[in-house]
Every structure is written in structure tokens, then in C-alpha cells.
Amino acid sequence: MAIMRCIQVQPGQEMTVEEFKTWLRRYDTDHDGRISREELKEALRSLHVWFTWWKARQGMKEADTNRNGQIDSAKETERLVNFAQQRLHMKIYDSLW
């Protein structure tokens, strides 16, 4: 039986890329495997950051390479991780060990 831990992300918390992806999937409200700008905005709102609408827009501009309005590939998710590290100052690592 697999044990999943509930990812509660706090500002300044360290996490792995997989934990970031798991956390982000919680905001995929339509369960289509993609993250829209509205879903990204809700994820950022959970971090209590300011100007979530603007930061979600910036994140989409940075990560959505095919401009379909969705983060829907591994490459785009990787770009979103980079955005979160650089612009949101989230501490995301390949692994914590």
C-alpha cells in the first residue's frame, strides 16, 4: 500500500520537485492533468502571496511555451518550477537527500 503524505506548502519551505508537482496537482480542479492560469492563481493564493493574478499571469507567460493557456507537459512543468524558484523564491530541489 502506498503512503501519500499531504503536502502543505508554506512560504520558505523546502521541497522536492516531485512534492511541488504533487502540491500543484491539488489545484487541478477539473482533473485533466493540466494547470490553467486560474488553477495556478488558486495555488499561489494558498501561499498567501500578493498579486496572485499577476504572478499567475507571469508564470504562464514563462512556462506555457505552446501558448495554449495550460501547463500540460513535463517541459512546461519544469519551466514553472524554475519560475517558482527564481520569481517566487520557493526552495525546490531535485531531492532533499
UniProtKB/TrEMBL annotation:
This protein's superkingdom? Eukaryota
Do you know which InterPro entries this protein is assigned to? Centrin_CML-like (IPR050145), EF-hand-dom_pair (IPR011992), EF_Hand_1_Ca_BS (IPR018247), EF_hand_dom (IPR002048)
Ranges that cross the membrane: none
Q: Name one Pfam family in it.
A: EF-hand_6
Q: Where is the EF-hand domain?
A: 15-50
A single GO molecular-function term is: calcium ion binding
Q: What are the alphabetically sorted keywords of the record?
A: Calcium, Repeat
Q: Which Gene3D superfamilies match?
A: EF-hand
This one is known as Calmodulin-like protein 23
